[in-house]
Design brief:
4-stranded antiparallel beta sheet; 498 residues; alpha/beta; 3 domains; Ribose 5-phosphate Isomerase B, Chain: A; Archaeosine Trna-guanine Transglycosylase, Chain: A, domain 4; 20% strand
Amino acid sequence: MRQVILISEKDNAAVALKPIEKGTMLEIQGHRMEVLEDIPQGHKIAVRPISQGEHVMKYGFSIGHAAQDIAEGSWVHTHNMATNLRGEQEYTYDPQTEKTGGGQISDSAPAVFQGFERKDGRAGVRNEIWIIPTVGCVNDIAKKLVKDNQDLVQGSIEGLHTFPHPFGCSQTGADHAQTRKLLAALVRHPNAGAVLVLSLGCENLTQEQFCKELGDYDADRVKFLVCQEAEDELAEGRRLLKECAAYAGQFERKPVSADRLVIGMKCGASDGLSGITANPAVGRFSDLLIAQGGSTILTEVPEMFGAEGMLMNRCASREIFDKAVDMINGFKHYFISHNEVVYDNPSPGNRQGGITTLEDKSCGCVQKGGTAPIADVIGYGSQVETKGLNMLYGPGNDLVSSTALTAAGAHIILFTTGRGTPFGAPVPTVKIATNTQIAERKKNWIDFNAGTVAEGESLDSAGKRLFDYVLEVAGGKQTNNEKQGYREISIFKDGVVL
């Protein structure tokens, strides 16, 4: 197994693929050097002297600058380097979309999965009944309805679930609108064969408002219950859930082309190997799916800060480029308007795993986007309408961004992690390990091991393995979050709570 990797010839810092002891002799691109101090796995080592103020290069991009002179063979981390990030920036569009990098599946036949054809023309990878509370006051009623009606999960119906949240009332302005839009998007999700919308009756997210946000809907698929208007909301809820089951039960799995898939891409509890193993493997997957005509979604806007150069010039048009600039600078303005610096990231766990600055984290994070052109930029609560790679407005927070990916129409979320995390979104959430140690230690969390890339597997091979695995999950194979019953949502908020 290699001890270090130099990602780009432009780099002056390599990454340790395993712990390296002080005194070890390394050969990097024909140059022999001595390791001057212990280097933890995933952390950086200077491959030549780096002067104070000089850019520290990784992925071929600057990830910050040296805060002091750094000797060749030294550990490069928070003690001797710092971020270059400040505030909003101006960007120049220099399109480079001719290099799509879209992967090619070896056989010519289009890939298929066993999915559910919906009457609106979309496809689902699960056939579940969802209860969507419009206000936090009815969360416990929704949970009791789920508990008491599990007998309805039979035949082709694969689950009955609800997603509690604290909002839907005591909100104003943009927060109120975002809650309404997000919940309506969940109601429309194709993994839900049928939906019960559960309200209290006095909240400021009224049923009239919600129906207007939802737009045209199939009254056989979507049912409404206002608890204050029912003499026995549990009995009435069961009656409506029976109707939901009768509707959802008519759908059966059948072959569906992979070009119907929409896959969200996310990382969390990252480490120094995330941008070397799991994230670029997901990038290879993204290129493969897009080559099949499918769609992927990249979000976590704050974790694009400092890596814009890897993304902006891949926008398919000037219009999309302008939307991307507005999204990134808009999120920076969001930070600044709350008196926060734009670079207050990575987390303590990220740093322990070898990620030093936000640029370091971002350059690894955006590897999930592969090399395909950016087809569209969409807002929070909006759904994917354009085939290909989409950028989605959303924060880095795992639960908030995974909820946004679900609302955008992601059938499945690919979630890379170096330190492990158990949570799940409403849709199957595939946990992809960046290192074999976490894959072997947390088998009840991790679904797919990309740590094999650090051990010699090619990224193309890992990407193809992941593509095949995603087709299995789309066809009904349960992820660990599904087996454990880990599903939740978190809604993005900004303003006051009344």
